[in-house]
Amino acid sequence: MPVSGPYNSQNSQNSQNSQNSQNSQNSQNSQNSQASENSQAGPDNTFSSAALGTARDGTVGYWDGSADRTPKQDGRSGWDALRAMATGPRRGLMDACLHGMFGVTLEARAKDKPATGTVALNGATLVTLEAPTSAFLADEQLPYLRTYADLRGDRLNEIIMQTGDIQSFFGLVGYMSPDATKWSLALNQAMLRLCTMIEMPLKHGFDVARPIAMSRKVQPMIQTPGHGAWPSGHATEAFACATLLSRLFLNAPVDPVEQVKAGNELYRHAERIAMNRTVAGVHFPTDSMAGAVLGVTVAEALINLLDGAPQTRTRVFHGSVYDGDFSLGRMVQALDTPTEIKTGTLSLTPGMVPGWLAKMWDEAKDEW
């Protein structure tokens, strides 16, 4: 979903319709404008390089090769080193850190057991997703598409924009700017990239069919992505963002489940983003429920790590037998029904958060 608009320019992070590749949140916080951020005076080209070369020759004179300054890099903190990095390298560092915390494993469907995907945090199970079969979807989920299609005229503009931009919708709730909320945007972008890293192996491994594969009458209003439907990437990312930004916007520790129950504005936007994918004809409601469970649980775990909490919640979504619709109200009901979503706890390992990331988290919280 490339997040274009005033909130975006961080790297084309989420073009989910063309590939759910979340790396297109481009324009999302103008963090990537390296010509202004990371050059001496302007873009490099043959002319400017030649001009700088002759200027050096005309001013330096004779140099015997000896040093005449002390590098400020000597002894500086990891945070100071990160602040000096250009946007691309900084993203690479953040991704290496966050992606290294999480892992995905898949287990194929057996005779009496559904296909199962597991997301682990530091090697311990955090989220378990049990996928539905095509026959189950055709019988229990496809009829929802008929009802949702009635909303297409009302939701068209949102659906088109959300194929490449979801962050701007959260920007309706809290002021987000590359200058005023630089670190909040950087963390939210990192969350989106983390979601892609987690969701894509699950989508590939489950390879759950899209609605168009079930009926010629679905006729989606946007192009159907070629990768698997389950879990929904839009739902995963939207609910992860809503969880992270709820913590930042409210500037205090929050319980995501209570915020979902209260229907705060961020979660209402996440709900609408997810549901719009069913309106468009490219997802079933169960896809969104799986994504919402995944996004909330991963974001909640990361927030708890950053806040130094001793534990976080684990969840199992029994998607192989979930025949319901998707909404915040239905999610609340499922969270209170262990046969649909089973909740547990996981102790967190101290010391997983490097100092520079802890400092970034403090800076992001101070922006609110």
Automatic annotation (TrEMBL):
Residues 191-303 form the Phosphatidic acid phosphatase type 2/haloperoxidase domain. Residues 1-52 are annotated as: Disordered. InterPro entries: PAP2/HPO, PAP2/HPO_sf. SUPFAM superfamilies: Acid phosphatase/Vanadium-dependent haloperoxidase. It comes from Antarctobacter heliothermus. Residues 41-51 have a biased composition (Polar residues). Residues 8-40 have a biased composition (Low complexity). This is PAP2 superfamily protein. It holds the Pfam family PAP2. It comes from the Bacteria.
